[in-house]
Amino acid sequence: MRVFAIQGDYSPAVAVLCVAEKGELDYAAKITDKRKYLQANRWPLEQRGLVHGRAEKEKAKVLLRDHQTGSQRKALCASDESKSKLEESMGKWLRVFKFPSVERGTYDRLECTAKYQIYPILGGKVVGDITSADIKALLNHWMNESYAYTTVKKVYNILTDYFRYLTQQEYIPKNPMAAAPMIKKSNFMASQGKEDLPTFETVTIFTPEEITKFKAEAVRTWGNGTPIYQQAAAYTLMLNTGLRTGEALGLLNSDIDLENRVIHLQRGVKEVSRREGTESTSGREVKIGKLKSTSSKRDVPLNQAAVDAILNLRAERYFGEDSPLISDEHGGYTRPVNFRKRYYRILEAAGLEQRGLHTLRHTFATNLVNGVKQPDGTIRSLSPRQVADLLGHSTSEITELYYVKKDTSRLAGITAGFEL
Predict the structure, then answer these.
(1) Structure pTM?
(2) Which of 11, 233, 335, 411 could cross-link with 309 by S-S, CB 3.0 to 4.6 Å?
């Protein structure tokens, strides 16, 4: 490091000095002192006799550091990014950084959250002017509009990633997210007049009576014997295997080994926005890709109900071993949106409450973990670890969180003998 002199009659202790290092000897700092511009030259102060002793050199370095900090701040304030409107800046960040690094379905959700929950309120604001109060007001707005905690948390997560990027790139000097933490879930729910229930109590499942009604409606036919609902046996298959919708729709006939009663899950089906490059165009398209996670690629055993469902599906429509088990009328993959609509029609006709397709998976897992009563009166159940492997969960903790019900009956009398 070399310290350089300032032209003019100024004491080294009060002059702002230029430090050149790492080959930056051509750097000349235009600075202001007493409203005058001074030009740093290349002559070492020691050679000019203008800096004497360690104390003077340390003062010079402090002044230099203060000058550099001020220059950086001015440069940041002048940044084009910090002067951009948030909608323009965040849109570019999503396209450049998020689009190449996440699944298409994930990107669609990120873009949707930004478009409908962030842009309407913050999109027109200048990035450099957005404060922690603005962030907090946005989160509070959607909370007060009775949006789900998970939805508002997605808004928070996007803003956190975006403003971290701006701060790391030094487009803005401070991160407004630092003083705008996400509200605790319990407080969030209380503000909406709701109770923060344990996760397993929020999982919806079908009762045995509802399953009976659903199955009866699903197999109903027209007067000529033609099924009213196409591929209705697929829902029975999901109910007896715990497959996700994308996993079931991604099954090829060749993935199924009926002799050994097992399914080999290899791929999944998703419906994503149609795009030209990163830009969304009208319509949606089916995308065949990898499964949700590495643990999702698994073998799933088949019980008799599942085997019967597969045979029914093949009897209704079969285009060969390399075609989807649940195919459309041309032998291609069934669109998830059509598969869901058909399911909702069955629920409505059966007089059942509308619930998502994932309810089939929840029902399967809940019954396996908590037990099913057998004809001899005994309860048969599986361990959370076994069910986790069947569902493709990475850990049994996830399974326990969602499906293991709290049983307080076994605590009756347990404190007897512990009188204090």
Answers:
(1) 0.70
(2) 233
